[in-house]
Amino acid sequence: MTIKIAETITELEGILALQQENLKSNLTIEQQQKQGFVTVEHTLEQLQILNAVEPHIIAVDEGLVIAYALTMTAAAKKEIPLLVPMFEMFEKIKYQGKPLLASDYYVMGQICIHQNYTGKGVFRQLYDKHRAVFAPKFKYFLTEISTSNKRSIRAHEKVGFKTIHTFQDDIDEWNIVLLEMRH
Fold this sequence. Notes:
Strand order of the largest sheet: 1-2-3-6-7-9-8
CATH class: Alpha Beta
Number of helices: 6
Distance between the termini: 30 Å
Number of domains: 1
Strand content: 25-35%
């Protein structure tokens, strides 16, 4: 298995295939609770645009994308209209007494690991690669997680994320979590 930045259309298509397998709308309640889920569905064009701004991090095994952690910056927020409210929420939040808007941050737009690879350290490896690639540019790494996605919340806490805000929207209740990339 290799952890790397996404570079080809085939790799981006691999992200989309894995995403389809794990979309909340495609899973039973039992599957959601056991393995977690992803909420937002992307297009190939959106992934290409986001990847051109800052690359996505993927895990590849035997030529197949078996995990990914998407990268989004505020510069690309309008590419996925469903996520604009998330960025607007980030602009209102303070962390350590300072507005996040005044900080160097980026967003992990979604993380997903094929069920055959869960519990094998892939989650941590994806974040370690994120830190190696992005710590020189960004101080904070943010994402939001459905409060009903207990598996994802626990996994993020294990690698050092902390909840800095919780809110409810038309879709779900969300925790905004933050990881300090550098101190």
